[in-house]
């Protein structure tokens, strides 16, 4: 089982992501919930790395950007730009849906937060982050998966979390420099290069 390789900090992040998903009434734990749980970390490699990259005082801005993306149904900027190229104004559609059904109607979350009392499943995006974190740990020859590997995975995979982090100056490259003191490629699958 992959979770046996997770450090206490990484397990805490996964538990925190489940809690974020539950509080939001989400049907599953998403990559965004993992990012929110990482932002909650204190006294860990992630918290120190985010502080070094100047994000410690701007976590609320990241949370707001994630909320804005959730209102768009989780569409990334690339998605909304592609739709705009087809003449579809996503902001206008969201506004109309929210006028008819309430704020957050596009998020896909049920209105009744108590709709399901079982365990939250992990979305494909969250599973991708967990799998990529393993590859990144192996590429760095780290024996265990820490919270830093989860954050690196979020920056390496396309999607809303990577866009939001990049907009706040946290990229795979900048994070790798802070964590490992060198520049590496985007891989995590053994293709990381020291530079």
Report what the structure shows:
The protein has 195 residues and is mainly alpha-helical. The chain has a domain of 130 residues: Clp, N-terminal domain (Double Clp-N motif), CATH 1.10.1780.10. Helices cover 57% and strands 2% of the residues. The chain contains 10 helices and 2 strands; from the N terminus they run αβαααααβαααα. It has a two-stranded parallel sheet with strand order 1-2. The radius of gyration is 17 Å and the shape is globular. This is Peptidase. Keywords: Repeat. InterPro entries: Clp_N_dom_sf, Clp_R_N.
SSE layout and pairings?
Layout: H1 8-24, E1 28-29, H2 31-39, H3 45-52, H4 59-71, H5 77-85, H6 90-101, E2 121-122, H7 124-139, H8 147-156, H9 160-167, H10 172-180
Parallel strand pairs: 1-2
Domain Clp R: 3-188
Keywords: Repeat
Organism: Streptomyces brasiliensis
Strand order, largest beta sheet: 1-2
Q: Write the element-wise H/E pattern from the N-terminal end onward.
A: HEHHHHHEHHHH
Using the alpha-carbon principal axes, give the shape: globular
CATH topology of the domain at 2-73 and 123-180: Double Clp-N motif
Biggest pleated-sheet summary: 2 strands, parallel
Low-confidence parts: 109-117, 186-195
**Structural class based on helices, strands and sheet pairing:** mainly alpha
Q: Beta fraction of the residues?
A: under 5%
Under the CATH scheme, which architecture of the domain at 2-73 and 123-180 would be assigned? Orthogonal Bundle
- The counted number of beta strands is 2
* Radius of gyration, in angstroms, nearest whole number: 17 Å
Helical proportion, percent range: 55-70%
Separation of the first and last Cα atoms: 33 Å
